[in-house]
Amino acid sequence: MCINESQKQHKWYYNLKYLVVGLLFGVLFVKAEVVSWFRIQEMFRLRSFHMYGIIGSAVAVGMISVWIIKRFGIHTISGEKITFADKKFSQGQIYGGLVFGLGWGLTGACPGPLFAQIGMGATAIVVTLLSAITGTWVYGRFREQLPH
Fold it and tell me: Pfam family example for this protein (predicted)?
């Protein structure tokens, strides 16, 4: 039976696990220099392999994980079968990728490490965070008129 987790009532401490994982993830990003503006600029200028190595490692881990899930029929903790739906290509993915890449290159930040960058003292990234939130709202508002 599928249960919508957001509809369940939990104790106040139930979501602390997400806080702990988020903090650990942020510390890992900072220590690995994934959130470093200079590392990101090195990547876009093709001057360092550091970021390509991290991104490539993540892609490899993801590919191996999906293969293992499919090969051994792994289920979720609640016992549900994990399925993968085929994705249909659309031109909107090209436009979205270009806008995302342009924003990443200009700001030195993608959505994942924004909070880690703010947490390590790069307060100018608040502008990037507010811009990302605004862009998400604009997309939601005009989604039906955009190419998909």
Answer: Sulf_transp
